[in-house]
């Protein structure tokens, strides 16, 4: 028994070490990922629920390394945060997203593009002016850019987040609260923020219609959003049952595998064209 226990402890440590080693190595690789052009963007459509027309596309970052293959953003974004690289990465993502989406916006394929921000971006005092510069450089209307910040990010430092969000809003961009419902923010805190949209976290959307049909959180999120005059988006919509309940509850926009996964640029354009010709 004691020996078993000892072996388990050893196994744990080996696992920890391996994990730690991977993190350290990835962190080192991440430093050169931008210059080596190892990043690429995929785009997932957000649709108006009633008309099923495409609203925005959300830019999602992908990293492919020679030694580790594809590394998930859930793994490398926190590393980029810790190392401070996230500021440069975010600026690259905004730049590349605007470059990529501009012709789509001009052709009327999409209304705009959404980009995710990290906690450190919200305490980057230079970001709002930089975003303004990028919009002018690409000739994209500010209202066509949505910046998504998670509820956790905002709650980490509400004061700083509020300042940056107001400065971003002053540039004319739209702001969205991502992963809504997971961050325990109060209504009072939300009210003080210049927000246009909330995105209900996919963990709540996944339960919709699955037997219990429990939708208390989703229902109240939609109510809160509408009472505050916000657009409400549901992410992670995977089934027709999910969609039917969101429709009944009056959700404004939907995003998820039921419609399209995140797509490479050429595939997104094809997807839009196919949808239009239906
Ligand atoms: P997120 O912003 O909440 O993005 C939604 C995630 O859900 C994406 O995962 C997307 O591929 C996935 N998803 C989309 N539809 C469905 C669905 O129907 N079901 C399920 N189960 N999942 C769905 P992804 O691309 O792996 O990104 C994970 C997270 O990494 C993102 O969560 C975001 O927090 C972060 N991230 C991705 N790209 C960037 C970036 O450019 N900058 C920053 N700061 N964070 C990023
Ligand atoms: Ca997002
Ligand atoms: Ca989300
Ligand atoms: Ca998330």
From TrEMBL:
Residues 23-276 form the EAL domain. Transmembrane segments: none annotated. It comes from the Bacteria. Coiled coil: none annotated. This is EAL domain-containing protein. The lineage of its organism: Bacteria, Pseudomonadati, Pseudomonadota, Gammaproteobacteria, Lysobacterales.
